[in-house]
Amino acid sequence: MANQPPKKSKGIKKVLIVATLLLLAGLLTLTTLTRTRIILPAEMVLKDTNGRIQSFLSVPFSKLRLIWEAYIDLQGVKEENQVLKAQLAQLENEITSYREALIENRRLRQLLDIKNSSNWKTIVAQVIGTDIAPWRAVITIDVGKRNGVTVDMPVLCQGGLLGRVIETSISYSKVMLLTDYHSRIGAIIQRNRARGILKGDGARGCILDYVKKGVDIQIGDTVITSGLDGIFPKGLLLGKVKLVGPGDKSDLFQFIGVKPMADIEETEEVLVLKSPLPKIKKK
User: Fold this and answer.
1) Over the stretch 117-137, which tens digit does the pLDDT of each residue have?
2) Are the beta carbons of 196 and 207 closer than 8 angstroms?
3) Largest alpha-carbon pair distance within the chain?
4) Residues 218, 219, 221, 223: what is their CA dihedral angle, to the nearest 10 degrees?
């Protein structure tokens, strides 16, 4: 009997042939799908999910970017606001300086008018210090011996007589105001020429003393220098009568309160009278 291959090996060969054909068919199908760009359902689901995740994550980052840009813009506005505030402050300072210069110019013009109408040599000075207490009224001015200032020279301001020099140094002088308790000035009532002595009365102003009872003195009368004290020239404005009383019964003189015309507390520039101008001889 001849030898024959077993039937089992023939079955295996058939299985291998069928598997090979199926594999080739699968490869051909995959190649065709790839070439035609047909996406499998699983791949579609995966890509769609990835897109949703990216879209979800992009929203917060977009908002953060907008918030950051708004913060940068806010910082720019803040810096610009600071610059504008600095410029406004500078303009306000300049306006204040111009206004102060204008006010000072007006005061100096008034002093210049007094100087031009005076028959005395004068010096313009700045007030640099004050010592105004209930018992003392003294100011310091920025002229002294080097400017020719000496003790007892009269000192005027825009309103009228302010006082007299009581002390000098090289560059500075002290002026006793007419409201000081130690101040004494020969005075007269301009209306009726009644004579008296103007005394300082501190914060209350001045008192016109030694005016006899019965002499007609009225509130509002103008008080001027008499020139009889040998210090102040005649005719300088001192103040206005603000109060008239009978005085003590045992006293021979009436009580007369006087308000100085000089603005004691706010004076900034003064005029020092040095000496009378020489008279021009007529031909």
Assistant:
1) 556 788 889 999 988 676 788
2) no
3) 188
4) 110
Quick one: tokens of 269?
A: 């520039």
Give residue 60's pLDDT: 60
Question: CA dist 11 to 6, 8, 25, 198, 270, Å?
Answer: 9, 5, 21, 153, 138
- The predicted model scores a pTM of 0.59
Contact indicator for 174, 167 with CB cutoff of 8 Å: yes
* Three-state SS annotation for the chain: CCCCCCHHHHHHHHHHHHHHHHHHHHHHHHHHHHHCCCCCHHHHHHHHHHHHHHHHHHHHHHHHHHHHHHHHHHHHHHHHHHHHHHHHHHHHHHHHHHHHHHHHHHHHHHHHHHHHHCCEEEEEEEEEEEEEECCEEEEEECCCHHHCCCCCCEEECCCCEEEEEEEECCCCEEEEECCCCCCEEEEEECCCCCEEEEEECHHHCEEEECCECCCCCCCCCEEEECCCCCCCCCCCEEEEEEEEECCCCCCCECEEEEEECCCCCCCCEEEEEEEECCCCCCC
Q: Are 260 and 179 in contact (CB under 8 A)?
A: yes
pLDDT in tens, 173-204: 999 999 999 999 999 999 999 999 999 998 88
Residue 197 tokens read as 């002595």
Instruction: Report the pLDDT value the prediction gives residue 5, as an integer from 0 to 100.
Output: 52
Mean pLDDT of 47-65: 58
CA distance 178 to 199: 7
The answer to whether 274 and 148 are in contact (CB under 8 A) is yes
